[in-house]
Amino acid sequence: MQDPIKRKKNILLIASFFIVLFIGPFIYKVLFLRYPILSKAVENLWTIEVKILFQGIGRDAMVRHYLPSDDMGQIVLEENFVSRTLDFFIGKEDLNTFVQWKGIRLKGDSGVFYRATVQTRPRINRLTIIGLERKYPPNVGKYLFTRPEMESFNVEIEEFLKGLFGKEENNLEKIRTIYNFLSKDVATVLFSQDTSLTGPIKTKKATIVEKKKLFIYLSRVAGVPARTVHGIILGDESKQNMVHSWAEVFLGGKWVPVDIENQLFVQLPETALILYRGDRPFMTSSGVKGLEYSFAVKQEDQWAFSFFYDTATKVGSIVHEWSLFSLPVEVQQVFRVILMIPLGAVIVSFFRNIIGVNTFGTFMPVLIALAFRNTKLGWGLVLFSAVIALGLVSRWFMDRLKLLLVPRLSVVVTVLVIILAVGSVIGHHAGIYRVLAVALFPMVIMTMTIERLSIILMERGAREALKVSLGTLLVSTCGYLMMSWVSIQDFFFTFPEILFALIGIQILMGRYTGYRLMECFRFHSFIEGDKREQLIPPSSPDISSEKK
User: Fold this and answer.
1) Residue 115 is assigned to a structural domain of this protein
2) How far from 454 is each of 396, 450, 462, CA to CA, in Å?
3) pLDDT in tens, 205-260
4) What is the CA radius of gyration of the chain?
5) How far is CA 148 from the centre of its chain?
6) 428 and 383 in one domain?
7) What stretch of H or E contains 264?
């Protein structure tokens, strides 16, 4: 028979071996690959989807549109192009990036999708006093020229600007004066009868489109390069089918934004995404009809671990290439849930073996905690308790019919499906949309829970059944809180070798044979009585009786 001390040492060595299997790769990733240990939210992370629908007319089809690119205050992290019937290629044009979709003899309904993940930040330009700049590089100076048909207006416009500027020769103040004139002195109207460039100057009324055009024209005549910028305004869960435009002027050696419509001078918020620059339309096509497009924007709740992997410079380590981050996004989401199951198992083992809480089954609380992910904790507890109670009623009725095990369980499953379907319909019409998630409760888990609860009720009484039910819900709640903690999910996903450490912890807990915490309360009076007996000194022998 093996020596208990030697057996204990072997257990400690095995547990330590598994813990070292975690510590080694963990230190390598943190110290050499610079993986972050703590998770934090990445701000201003957006997913933009462009959906384009059209009909082919039996000819070669072409659809061309601009794409966002790395620019001032924005970084494109990921792009996806999807189409079943069209090929595409990406090209550059001046300062813009575009994609061109092509199809051969396309007929019927078709569509293409573009999806990008971008991170933005506010663009705030701090400009000091800027003098009168007369020479610009060719790529900037081309934005000073006006169209030939507008030259006849120049004399009238120049006279107007002289009166507007006075003796001001500071380019920054010139642009500010033009901006203030169009923003404050010219009223915004929905429709304008005078569509000429000088119309807003005379009538002090203009549409927002006329204001934008006039701002660029007045800036150029004033000797400041100006150009048009097109983009979209980002908003969580927003949908739009129009491109927003604003102006950029060249001041202090750089291009700065000016948005007349949103009253933004030399700054842009983090919700502005630049698509392209110039006067061309966002999308052009040929060989198709009924072209429609729309933007869908969603603010992402991505965290620093995945953001780090997407943006960090690769150091050539095989750990990068073979990490879980290399999996498709959908598979990553699955593994974020799967990796939490061993953690839930450790929590159940701790509550059962160390604290002494009784539960339904060994790992039933883990499965219940996973079910709470769909309903959230509050509604999950209420709905789960209600469904279990109704299921118990049906189980009691089936028991009176003296059915065999498998048919009885089948009936209970069917009753549960009916309960969930009715509950979802009621929740939808009542506007309680959390109730709809009750349909995501796993049927098998609930059926086995009802079966176990009914057996405890018959064999051990209602008090014991209530005690086990509350213990199961307690462990499930603690498991849910730990397993739904995003920082823990990110840590497990980034350092999956921590599963070895969990094995070591489980081995150590498996060898624990001492008192459970609940037993200390249960046998409190017995333990206290035993202590009192140890404190009482032994009585002295009766000498007189011994003599007799």
Assistant:
1) yes
2) 8, 6, 10
3) 889 988 998 999 899 888 889 999 999 988 866 677 789 999 999 988 889 999 99
4) 36
5) 51
6) yes
7) strand 264-265
